[in-house]
Amino acid sequence: MPVEFLSDEQAARYGRYHADPSPEQLARFFYLSPADVAFLATYRLPHTRLGCAVQLCTLRFLGTFLPAPTQAPAMVVRTLAEQLQVSSDDWHLRYTRPNTIYDHQAQLVAYLDYRVFEGRQAFRLTRWLYAQVSTSTVRPSILFDLATAHLVAQRVVLPGVSLLARLLARVRERTGRALYRQVQARLSGVQRDLLDALLVAAPGERLTPLELLRTPPTRVSGPALVAALRRLDQIRAVGVSAVPVQDLPEARLTRLARHAQLAWAQPLSRLGEERRHATLLVFVQTLERTATDDVLDLFDNLLTTLALRGETRRRRERLRTLKDLDEAALVLHQAVCILLDEAVPAATLRQQVLDRVGETQLRAAAEVVQNLARDDDPALQVLSGSYASVRRFLPALLAGISLEGTPSAKPLLEAWRFLKAQEAGGRGRPKWAAAPRPVVPKSWARRVFPVKGEVNPQAYTLCVLDRLHQALRRREVFAPGGERYGDPRAELLRGEAWETSREAVARALDRSTDPAVELDRLRQQLRTAYQQVGDNLADNTALQVLQEDGQATIVLTPLAAQAESADLTRLRQLLSVRLPPVELAALLREVDAFTDFTGAFTHLSDG
């Protein structure tokens, strides 16, 4: 594997001072403790003490030594010279003897309890790299920085940049080859042929099956949902859905799927056989999950669209019938006025209402009010005219999607299975009278069950779809083959799967699987921190411990406010002048005018 993943800047920065240390870094890494001063006092010559101090603090700060100690920044040398009370004028001319420099390095490694990168340390880093490569998807350049930080934290002297880069590349290459072999070994000969066929375009076709399958839907309609379900069936027809890959590193599988999603068929066909089959297998399984999510996204958007259209139709119909409702209300108003008139005898009340208003007109008005002033569920009213649109995709949806759910979704799942059995037909087809009733809420009951013992099939179907739409959004129902709509509990490792991955996860996090070791580490950190606070408490002027009512109270002296510098004030003014006096939306449109960045996005509802 090539090792040119390091940029020139990153390679030049490795084990070097790329800038002067900050004041905080000077205080942390370049402060000479009394023990350091006592160690350096064993050297007789001033320039030797200063050179050894430079190497000591460089090892603390960088985790390694410079090729020549004289390459240290002047600020570092000046800070250390002031603490040692020696001159730094000619030290770079006198501290140049290689034997002296190397002797000092060996002594400093022993004094600071560092370890040289060889043998056991190389093995431990290699094992750590294997765990990182198996459990993460970071780029090699980032992993190189993480390995550097890991070595510094473990107090190991950093090796050469090329040595570390080659080790990282070798680990990645071996991990990849082992993964490819494992995946290909789980495929049969027929499955390998089907995967290879995805990269070959049919005669007369311009696109390969792989290109067609990974093209997601872009319209929201019944035919588009049927096409998305047909695409899902074609993905399942490849026949690799059941190939087990759950025990393999998920991070590596994600990287393979991402590569297959972005690459053309020709580069994929030129890969080695093991890598090609592994890449296509992982991609097809990932594509099946995303295609399932696409189907449910389309279903969600389609139900929303039908509801919006139904709401528009309902409002238009409502406005059209307001005149009829007003006329009927005036007729009933006349009857009510007669009913409330105390001068009309109760014995002749009904006859007078019929004489003045008319029985036919009164019955017609009551029927108009009953039909127009209904208390049905708004969802029922807006979906009542959408059954014809639903029938376009319902058979394919029932056949192509399997659903599971939480215990609260049990009535809905029973109704979904009932609709599946109805659509399948045959002798075992259940009668509509046996349709599960708990899924129907009270607001739908009058429309779904117009007569006792009878079921309105159209209203029942719309009711189940509406309830499914709500349950998918609440995640009460999930599709086992989906990713975003899948069971969120399925991502948790349990039982044997966790025991298999436990060591690799612990190694990647640099943690022990033994609780006693972790507790001892935390106990030691707490003891060390407590001792440091106790030792420095007498000299700490910002912290005081006061006794109030027999209890100790900690009082922290607030930090003094630091005045803003002239440079900061000037920088703020320059930034204010350069900020465009426009709204954010206008600024985005202006940027889009010369970059066309919105062209890279295709929204699901563009149709």
TrEMBL record:
Domain DUF4158, first and last residues per copy = 5-171
| Name of the protein | DUF4158 domain-containing protein
Q: Which domain of life is it from?
A: Bacteria
